[in-house]
């Protein structure tokens, strides 16, 4: 970002913006400004303008265009006067040339010399305008978004016009006569394209650079917002709770999980798909109980009524493991197969004897086994004192 | 039991110090390296039994180290150790030649076990890696090009499923009524398939997973 910002002044220095100096001007300072831009003697350009004005009046048009598009140089104090002597000299020169041209018929147009001068003149105009990146940027900034479609449209339009013109000429039997003219036009167009090519290329490069920069800035803003909202906040909380190792672990763990999800997990809707929902349930219970819950999911599917019931049973199994097993880690494994969904909740805690669990304890019998069976699934609990507990939930998938 | 000589490659100095302190007495840390170049140099010089390899590092990361060291015909064994859970990192580093992948949250004793296992030529699969492998092989619908390499056997699938459920090798052996050695053989065979299968789906799956 910084390095790219600093490029701008350099670029401006390499391409000084063209201005019309008022001191020493003959008409409006166009030739002088352009000469400074091209590092030529202004006399050369003045002569060129005069010459081009004799040929088809092109010099006049070019001069007018540059006059319009070129700002005048800022001057302090009194505006310097025009150099009337020089103006008179160029006027006389123009009269002489025009007279000569009229007498010899060289200015009637169509001659090779005329056309090459015309092509050169147009090319020079384009190159001059190219010399000011700032203006170019301003001109294009409004059109940036439409550039590609504009090109396509222009291309199609040009093609249509050419096809239409050739068709018309062919139909009226004029094609053979017009061929020389067409070849000529093609040469001119190609010439112009050659001149404009570096400009177009640099334009495209600049647009791409701008776009990359914008995307980068947006991403940076998103990361900054995220870091601010979650990471910094958690770090503050950790400092405040430094005396409570359990709370510190819980905070660090929940922040780690959140960052991981943000960085590595595909964006999923926890209300719609099983894997995301299982991860969310595990995360919530991990936060609530301060016990690490490791989740592995294989495959995924849309949630339905049966699977929501399965999620509740999963939550209950995780809660039981966190609260009663004494194990530091609870493993949750969910697998979606073509015809059924299976969830395992396992801990390496102290385990228990299933038959010793009183009838009125709702956790396992009602919230896990009962709920699964009511919804067309099944639950199996495997446990032994000292050997941990594993709850296996199975639900058939509706085809 | 002879001690296992280990080189720790990680760009975080604090983390290297932490791992060094946590490893059991059967592990001897012979050196540390903090980027790709110094890692490649240290491996050539020290010839450790096992390299603990960080996945994200300046200069190309763990995969670049694997490429340069294994590409030169070395038989050093690698255990990837990373904070990343991204499937493309996990699958990428395994396909690059690492014999195992564990996350940095692993406890000291578990890491010690994993290092010894890798030193003995076995594979180390974390539950998450097992899940990825099951997912990757299950999601490839296309018929296998090489049936021997491109699909898992029923037994391998069972073993992976138990690893994903949080079972240790010993518990898996007990559950399936097989020996621990057989469990290790199955896991090594899955590792081989993962590394040698030329199904592009595996890599593509890992990349596409982030874009779901």
The helix-and-strand class of chain A reads alpha+beta
Number of strands of chain B: 6
Overall geometric form of chain B: globular
CATH topology of the largest domain in chain B: Rossmann fold
> If you average the pLDDT of chain B, what whole number results?
83
Q: Note the total helix count of chain A.
A: 13
Order of helices and strands of chain A: HHHHHHHHHHHEHEEHEE
The CA-CA distance between the termini of chain B, in Å, is 47 Å
Order of SSEs of chain B, N→C?
A: EHEHEHEHEHEHHHHHH
Cα-atom radius of gyration of chain A: 40 Å
Count of individual domains of chain A: 3
First-to-last CA distance of chain A: 54 Å
Number of domains of chain B: 2
What are the low-pLDDT stretches of chain B, counting only 5+ consecutive residues below 50?
none
Which strand order does the major sheet of chain A show? 1-2-3-5-4
Helix count from the secondary structure assignment of chain B:
11
CATH class annotation of the largest domain in chain B: Alpha Beta
Largest sheet of chain B: 6 strands, parallel
Question: What does this 3D model show about the protein?
Answer:
The complex is a heterodimer of chains A (399) and B (212). Chain A has 399 residues and is of the alpha+beta class. Chain A folds into three domains: 18-109, no CATH class; 132-264; 267-396, Histidine kinase-like ATPase, C-terminal domain (Heat Shock Protein 90). Helix content of chain A is 64%, strand content 10%. Chain A is built from 13 helices and five strands. A five-stranded mixed β-sheet of chain A has the order 1-2-3-5-4, with helices on one face. The longest helix of chain A is centred in the middle third of the chain and has 66 residues, at 175-240. Mean pLDDT of chain A is 75; it is low at 1-14, 107-113, 126-133, 135-140 and 142-146. Chain B folds into two domains: 1-121, 3-Layer(aba) Sandwich (Rossmann fold), CATH 3.40.50.2300; 125-212, Arc Repressor Mutant, subunit A (Orthogonal Bundle), CATH 1.10.10. Chain B has eleven helices and six strands. Chain B has a six-stranded parallel β-sheet, sandwiched between helices. The model of chain B has no long low-confidence stretch (mean pLDDT 83). In chain B, helix 1 links the parallel strand 1 and strand 2 (27-33). Helix content of chain B is 54%, strand content 14%. With 212 residues, chain B is an alpha/beta fold. Chains A and B meet through helix 10, strand 1 and strand 2 of A and helix 6 of B.
